[in-house]
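Letters spell out the chain; backbone shape is given numerically. Take this protein:
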Amino acid sequence: MRKPKPHDATPHVPAPNVATPLTATPEGGVVAPPRFASQALDAICTPHQVEQEVQRELLAQPSLRFASLVVRRIDNGVCLQGVLESDDELPDVCHIARRVSGVRQVLNRLVIAPRREVPVKG
C-alpha cells in the first residue's frame, strides 16, 4: 500500500497591492465599483421599482396633497397623472420626481384642484 504524498506546503502569498479602479460621479464625487455581482444587480431598478420610489417621494412631501396619483414609467423617466389639491404656490413636483435614480424626464399630467378640507370623523 502506498502512502499518499503530502501536498506542497507553500505558504499563502497575498496578491500584490492592486488599486481598485474608482469612477467619478457627475457631482464630482468618487465611487468604487461593487465588490460582488449581487451589489451591482441591486443598483439596477426595474420600471416598477422606479414608479414606486417616485410615488413614495411625492407622497412623503408634507406640502403635497393628492386626491389621486398614478406614476407610470416612460423612456428615461416617469409620467405623473392624478389630482393634486393645492390653494397655495405650486411646488415643483418634477424636481422631486427627478431626485429618484433613473428619472431624467418627467411628463406632468397632474390636474390641480382647490384643496378640500376633509371633515374629522367622530
